[in-house]
Amino acid sequence: MKLDVISFDGQSAGSIELSDAVFGLEPRPDLIARMIRWQLAKRRAGTHAVKNRADIARTGAKMYKQKGTGGARHGSKRAPQFVGGGRAFGPQVRSHEHDLNKKVKALALRHALSAKAKDGAIVVWENAQLDAPKTKVLKAGFDKTGITSALIIDGGALQENFALAARNIPKVDVLPVEGVNVYDILRREKLVLTRSAVDALEARLK
């Protein structure tokens, strides 16, 4: 797959050939869904909790005698059916993580990249660098190229000027290639890769 390479403000900078082994697969929604579920489960804090009847600070003595009152039989006031009692079957502190094979993770990333390529939503830049951290300059370039929602991936460490300028723009995320992930790729309309990011992804996923 051949794509044109441009600068962030739309100036032509040649072309690049994308590997079919990474960007040319037929996307599998089941793999992508599994990966997103794994990512979202992994980042859940799992700190939700309620007090069950053993955690309630209230007497455990029997409310009234068993027989002769004409009422239902009850024991402790800490039981869930009473106001101020414990909660039955409520959430407890736990981890929501589950295992996912390393090969499945890599394959899901290939399929996410291929899904973007199939939709024509991949843009390749020569680099992601600015002379000064000016959001206005970067936004003007985005307006020229029609970018309103994008994940920008650079091949190495992010240039500080570019990262500072981009962080003020809504729906624009910037990541180094080490941080590329399926969820962030799919939550933005465009995937913007630098030349070095393309090379790094192909070396990592081939």
Q: How does this model look, in words?
A:
With 206 residues, the chain is of the alpha/beta class. It has two domains: 148 residues, Ribosomal protein L4/L1 (Ribosomal Protein L4, Chain: A), CATH 3.40.1370; 41 residues, no CATH class. It is 34% helix and 15% strand. It contains seven helices and six strands. It has a six-stranded mixed beta sheet. Helix 2 crosses helix 3. The radius of gyration is 27 Å and the shape is elongated. The protein starts with a strand and ends with a helix. The mean pLDDT is 94.
CATH topology label of the largest domain: Ribosomal Protein L4, Chain: A
Strand order of the largest sheet: 2-1-3-6-4-5
Total individual domains? 2
* Uncertain residue ranges: none
What is the total tally of β strands? 6
Sheet with the most strands, sense and barrel status? 6 strands, mixed
Mean model confidence by pLDDT: 94
* Helix count, DSSP H or I runs of 4 or more residues: 7
Q: Which range best describes the helical content: under 10%, 10-25%, 25-40%, 40-55%, 55-70% or over 70%? A: 25-40%
Order of helices and strands: EEHHHEHEHEHEH
Q: What sort of overall outline do the alpha carbons produce when their principal axes are compared? A: elongated
CATH superfamily label of the largest domain: Ribosomal protein L4/L1
CATH architecture descriptor of the largest domain: 3-Layer(aba) Sandwich
**CATH level 1 name of the largest domain:** Alpha Beta
Beta-strand proportion: 5-15%
- Based on secondary structure, the structural category is alpha/beta
Distance between the termini: 15 Å
Rg over CA atoms: 27 Å
Family: Belongs to the universal ribosomal protein uL4 family.
Subunit structure: Part of the 50S ribosomal subunit.
GO cellular component, one term: ribonucleoprotein complex
Keywords: Ribonucleoprotein, Ribosomal protein, RNA-binding, rRNA-binding
